[in-house]
Every structure is written in C-alpha cells, then in structure tokens.
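Subgroup meeting minutes
Present: P.N., E.W., G.H.
Scribe: E.W.

1. P.N. recapped why we're keeping a running log of single-chain structure predictions: easier to compare across weeks, and new members can see raw inputs and outputs side by side.
2. G.H. added today's entry (429 aa).
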Amino acid sequence: MKKIEAFLKCVDCGKEYDLSQVRYTCDCGGTLDLTRDLSGVDGEELKNLFDSRWGQKWGATASGVWRYKELIFDIPDEQIVTRMEGNTRLYPAGKAGEYAGLKNFFLKHEGENPTGSFKDRGMTCGTTAAKYYGAKTVACASTGNTSASMASFAAVSGMKSVIFIPEGKIAYGKLAQALAFGGKTLQIKGNFDDAMSLVQDVCRELNIYLLNSINPFRIEGQKAIGFEVLQQFNWEVPDWFVIPGGNLGNNSALSKGLQELYQLGIINKIPRIAVIQAEGSAPLAKMWKNHTPFEPVKDPDTIATAIKIGNPVSWKKSLRGLEWCNGVVESVTEQEIMDAKAFVDMAGIGAEPASCCSVAGAKKLVDMGVIDKDAKVVGILTGNVLKDPDAVIGYHKDELASMGIKGNFANKPLVIDANVAAVKAALEA
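Output recorded in log:
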C-alpha cells in the first residue's frame, strides 16, 4: 500500500510543519496535530490490511497500536519501540451495566496494557518518535500513569527517563512502577500544572524529548483504542463512547481517529462521545455547562488522581472533537466515582478510580435522558484496579469520610476467631 505522508499542523492558526525537526507547539503557541492527506487512500484496502494483521503472533504489527501504523506513524518496523501494547479486552459490563441502567454496555479495559494503563498506547508512539529524532533522554510531568509508562518504554528502548511529579500527590502503585523501571523521579513542590510548566522549560533548555500529551505523537498512539474497539465489533459503530477526562488527550485522540475512519469510509456512522470529569477537577465541564471561556482550576482535588489536572493542555483539541461528534461533557462527584467503581469491581473487571468516571458518567447521562437505556455504549476503563489500592481499601473499610465519601457498597473485611463456628457465623451473616 502507498505510504500516507504526514505533517504537523497547528490547531489554532493552521500553519504546517514537516517532520524534520522536533516540535511540540506552533510558533503561535498553539498545539500541533500529526495530519495526513487521506485523499486517494482506499479505505476498504486499508481496513482489509488492518484485519489481515489481527491475531498476528509476533512482530511490530502484532501490537494493538502498530496494527494500524498507516494511521499512527508509518515508519519501518525495526524503528518501532513496542511492548506489544493494546489487544485489550472488551467486556460486557455485567453488574456495572445494571448499575448504569444500560442494556448494551461494554467496558474496554485499557488497564490490561503492559504497565496497567492506556498510556502505553500513546507512549509506544511517543518513544518511537523520540528514537526517530535521536533522543537519549525523555521526560514527562505525571500524576502517575504517564510516568510508569514512560519509564518502562524508555527502559525497553535504552533511553534515560526523567519524571516530574507533584510531591505527595501520586498513588504509590504508580510511583512504584516509575521507580522500578529506573525513572529519575523528581518530586516538586506544587501541583501537576506546576510540574507540567517546569518539564516544558527543562526539555527546551536541556535538549530532552518531552513525552506529555502535548507531544503530537502521543495522541496518535491513543487513537488505536477506538480503532481496536471498532475492529472488535467487526467495524460496527456503537452509539456512544464514554471516557474519563483529565489532560483530555485521550478523548481528543478518540475523536481524531474516528474522524479519519469516517473520512476513509471505513465507518459510515459518527458515534457520540461523552467526556466525564471529576467534579473537583472539571475545567472543561464548567466551560461546557456554563458557556463561558475556558478557565483552569487552580487547585484541582479528586480521589481520581489520574485525572486530577486543572489546566489540561489538550482542551482545544478536545472541544474540536466534541463539536464534530455532537458530544457532551459532564462531571461526577467523588461519591459517584467510588460507587461506580464498586460495581465495576463487583463485576469482576476492576479499575482505578479515574476509570470509573466512565461508568459514573454513563449512569448520570442515562438518568438525565441524554443516553438512551437501549443505546450501545462503550465505556473506556483507563487503568488497572491495583494502580490505587489505598482508595479501594479505604472505600471498603468505609474510611474515606474525610473526603466526603461513604462506603455505600462496601465489602468490609471481617476479623473472626480461628475456629469453624466463627467462620460459619461469618458466612451466614
């Protein structure tokens, strides 16, 4: 198949750049897209190529990202940095579907990626770009999942990694991964947005390759979540995708990928996208609901640490995608997040708190009449249940009162005497 040429294009002013030099933003300050000229591309031929790679046992295109490399970053297989990411399962939602009031609810579990979150999809593409540009060191600001993923992929590729995290504001399950994979971890005094500002200065001044979602290649890898869902449905399009919103790169990627598939005729229907933010960290939701200019949240606060971001860098891309698909933005409370999480976990699927915004948001939108109870809905679960074990234990022991959260569906551990009678009494209780 003929190679599809790509270039960078500014979201704000439309200025174009070739790929010969490292760029994260336009001269005007706008964020950049990796853009393709899809005119003359045979969508049916491309879809057949993707399907021919399904089930491959080895090689770069066995990855659930690089299977679609013509629409990701089309470079030779030997230049690709991969951990065979993607190929995650799509589950019937079970009890979580009943809780949300949906008859056809499916959960795409990105927590089944190598480092336990969807970040691996963007990071395989980001580290491949770093290798393409000859980088020796990569860096990111992170609330957890990005740092774990970047440290892993950097180690696989032989690069050094530097991680900037808000001091004391990262779940240990994620910090442990970053440390284990050899990332140089710097805890700064401030929140994620302070870390994000600092890492951009550091990368610019020290010639380090930046791997936050402002990096246009990261977004490309994350598109594969939507591609894979559609392929799992044999290219039949669901009515809705419901997805958590933190830095807003994930839903920006989802809409961008869907738009490309629609342009190519691979899909003939545009699904709607719902972005769900935590109430204490919801700048896009406030903008959307109040019809006001975008304004960052100064001190974001939520138990869903993966989306505790007050000034998301991808908000313009996110809005662009939502407008294209007639999407919506909603926010959910801490209680709604953790109650939804209880049902995702009870379904035997499990996910970190941020993931469960998808289920909490789906329930809320069904209750509001925005999503029909008979609609075919896909919720994206972004991280593994063990990413934030303190939140799980705190909820089930009903010890989150200081955060305004009750263990409404708690499964409390019981302390009993070591005899059969005590066990029988506990089982009958």
